[in-house]
Amino acid sequence: MNSFRLIPLDPAAFEPLFALDDKDLLQRGIRRCIADRAPGFPCRVSLEDSKPGDELLLLHFEHHAANSPYRASGPIYVRRGAQPARLAPGVVPPYVTIRLMSLRAYDAAGMMVDGVVVEGTAVAAELERMFGNDGVRYVQLHNAKRGCYSCSAERA
Which residues of the chain have pLDDT under 70? Predict the structure, then answer.
């Protein structure tokens, strides 16, 4: 059916941060790190796991800026020079399928209307189910074990 598309973050907001020195980053609550294993450093722009040696920033990000009780933020990784993922409708990359995921469906008012925790291999089926509800406007995916925001899904 392919009723959804995964949406990465726009790198424009993050790229200028890579030019800051570590002291300036720390003053903003941001940490520069180098991936030392794969998987383990999932980039929210490319929707890929970084490779060992890749430079990333670990920073606080408001991923759900809705004017609702479900407004939320948390830590994310962004890789230097990452290009935004361009995924076809219905495609769920290994970045998601190898992890235990929490899916949170929201309506137009930013209120949660559904939520599940599933193995990453079941994400596509769950997104199809959730978007079968006309009241669902978007779904946010989170890495269930750490609770970190992963990406959003919109209707295709």
Answer: 1
C-alpha dihedral sign at 115, 120, 121, 127: positive
d(CA 99, CA 95): 7
Residue with tokens 């407004």: 71
Query: Nearest-CA neighbor of 130 among 105, 96, 102, 109?
Result: 105
- Strand spans (E) along the chain: 4-7, 31-34, 42-43, 48-49, 55-64, 72-79, 100-106, 112-119, 138-143, 149-155
Give the strand order in the sheet containing 48-49: 31-34, 55-64, 72-79, 42-43, 48-49
Q: What is the pLDDT of residue 155?
A: 95
**Amino acid identity at 25:** L
pLDDT of residue 29: 97
Residues 6+ apart with CB under 8 A from 22: 32
Structure tokens at 73: 């933020």
Q: What is the pTM of this model?
A: 0.94
Question: What was the pLDDT predicted at 1?
Answer: 60
